């Protein structure tokens, strides 16, 4: 009996569990009230079984089947005592798990404490978790689902906005560049018009000066001709005087003639001197124009540093700049950008090398050695700090070079020629004075040194450093290079007052090396 399914005790009329079961003569059982109503609605005198259609005449007198009722009660008790079994069907079902009860209060663990991160019952929430954030998981889930829906909508909006920007970005950028080119062309056209207008005015001025000078020449020629005639007369007078035999008359005539000759002064304007003054004024204008152009160009470069790659692309290509891969995303993706470099290969200067630094490989490699290299004395040699600089002064156009180093610590930078060499103070140490800049690896982090001030930098270690210098534009940048991929470490913007020299400093680790790389 205990194995019988519940459908055995259901009424085929109401389809529910039998209530006050009544059994017909045919053996089928129904709810007493259901079978009575069924027969009340049937045709008069026709009383049949709803299942087997057996007709009873006369209408049977029905009562509750007590034996069936007792069997149903016993079955119900056994079903309650037995743990429920998993539901079997056509599809796989998850295994049944009985509700978890609180070990202290034997109540369902229907709540969750966020502070203690555990499930609790109602009584626990008032006792051991008082003041904590206790919620019903289902209710909290509903609230979180609403928040997730809002976040999802927000994310979808962000995705839509960014997709729209991606679609419009090329055109927006192109429009911006075209506007800049149009404005730039307009400014330079106006500047050329101003220069041409000034040239026209100066040309007109010189033409007027030429006409005026011709008039002055005619006046001076007429005056000189008059003076020549007068001098001829004086010459005749002197000839007559020379032939005078009377001494008294000779003396009187000679004193008067000599005084007249002395008063004839040659006064004529010099065109070379006046032209030289005009030429100096025009030359000063040209020099001022060159200074203005160079200063304005450097200012444009510094102002547009954030768009440096794009703004200088045509210029860098014209200057024979090389290209390098710059990583802008995951390790397996990269983009080609114009790198700020020219093919430049510096060499180390023997005259500056510290006495324990050995140069090799065509003066491209420096090694810190324990033995003295016995260099001759030289005014440019570092006497205290383990440093060496390059021969080539860098000025004007951009330069790019790369340095590989080994050891525990290193300083790589640039310096003016005026930096000290013979002292043990900061005036001779790279990065610790006004005449030098140095990128320093301390063994754990990078930092930039200048004028004795340190700026900490967030960049991982790299044994190959790229240096970009545009002395004219006032830009100095350091890059870490790995597998032909470069990331900027830092960038300095300033006004350089003169040529700079690549500079390097060793620390105490013997065998440390610095190598100037050959750029392909």
UniProtKB/TrEMBL annotation:
It comes from Electrophorus electricus. Residues 97-137 form the B box-type domain. SMART domains: BBOX, PRY, RING, SPRY. This is Tripartite motif-containing protein 16-like. GO terms for cellular component: cytoplasm. Pfam families: PRY, SPRY, TRIM_CC, zf-B_box, zf-C3HC4_4. Coiled coil: none annotated. One of its GO terms (biological process) is innate immune response. The keyword Zinc applies. It comes from the Eukaryota. Residues 326-520 form the B30.2/SPRY domain. Keywords: Immunity, Innate immunity, Metal-binding, Zinc, Zinc-finger. One of its GO terms (molecular function) is zinc ion binding. Residues 11-53 form the RING-type domain.
């Amino acid at each position: 009996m205990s194995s019988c399914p519940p459908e055995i005790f259901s009424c085929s009329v109401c389809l529910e569990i039998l209530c006050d079961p009544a059994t017909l003569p045919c053996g089928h059982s129904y709810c007493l009230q259901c079978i009575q109503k069924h027969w009340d609605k049937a045709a008069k005198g026709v009383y049949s079984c709803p299942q087997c259609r057996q007709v009873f005449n006369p209408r049977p007198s029905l009562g509750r089947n007590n034996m069936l009722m007792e069997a149903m009660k016993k079955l119900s008790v056994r079903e309650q005592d037995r743990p429920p079994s998993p539901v079997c069907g056509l599809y796989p079902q998850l295994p049944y798990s009985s509700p978890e009860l609180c070990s202290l209060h034997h109540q369902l663990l229907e709540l969750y404490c966020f502070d203690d991160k555990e499930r609790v019952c109602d009584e626990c929430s008032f006792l051991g978790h008082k003041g904590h954030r206790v919620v019903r998981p289902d209710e909290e889930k509903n609230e979180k689902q609403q928040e997730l829906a809002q976040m999802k909508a927000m994310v979808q909006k962000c995705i839509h906005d960014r997709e729209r920007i991606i679609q419009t970005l090329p055109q927006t950028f192109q429009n911006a560049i075209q506007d800049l080119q149009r404005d730039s062309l307009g400014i330079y056209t106006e500047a050329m018009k101003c220069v041409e207008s000034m040239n026209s005015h100066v040309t007109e001025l010189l033409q007027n000066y030429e006409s005026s000078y011709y008039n002055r020449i005619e006046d001076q020629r007429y005056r000189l001709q008059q003076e020549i005639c007068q001098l001829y007369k004086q010459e005749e007078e002197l000839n007559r005087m020379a032939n005078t035999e009377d001494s008294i008359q000779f003396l009187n005539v000679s004193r008067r003639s000599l005084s007249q000759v002395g008063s004839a002064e040659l006064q004529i304007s010099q065109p070379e001197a006046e032209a030289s003054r005009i030429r100096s004024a025009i030359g000063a204008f040209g020099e001022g124009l060159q200074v203005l152009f160079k200063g304005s160009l450097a200012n444009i470069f510094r102002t547009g540093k954030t768009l440096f790659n794009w703004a200088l692309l045509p210029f860098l290509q014209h200057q024979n700049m090389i290209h390098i891969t710059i990583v802008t995303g995951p390790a397996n993706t990269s983009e080609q950008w114009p790198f700020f470099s020219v093919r430049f290969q510096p060499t180390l200067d023997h005259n500056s090398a510290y006495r324990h630094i050995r140069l090799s490989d065509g003066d491209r490699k420096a090694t810190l050695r324990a033995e003295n290299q016995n260099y001759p004395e030289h005014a440019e040699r570092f006497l205290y700090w383990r440093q060496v600089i390059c021969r080539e002064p860098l000025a004007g156009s951009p330069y790019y070079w790369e340095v590989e180093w080994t050891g525990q610590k290193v300083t790589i930078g640039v310096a003016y020629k005026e930096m000290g060499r013979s002292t043990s103070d900061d005036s001779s140490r790279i990065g610790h004075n006004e005449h030098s800049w140095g990128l320093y690896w301390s063994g754990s982090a990078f930092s930039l040194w200048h004028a004795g001030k340190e700026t900490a930098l967030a960049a991982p270690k790299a044994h190959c450093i790229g240096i970009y210098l545009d002395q004219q534009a006032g830009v100095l940048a350091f890059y870490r290079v790995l597998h032909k991929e470069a990331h900027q470490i830092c960038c300095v913007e300033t006004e350089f007052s003169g040529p700079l020299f690549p500079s390097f400093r060793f620390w105490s680790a013997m065998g440390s090396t610095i190598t100037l790389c050959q750029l392909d």
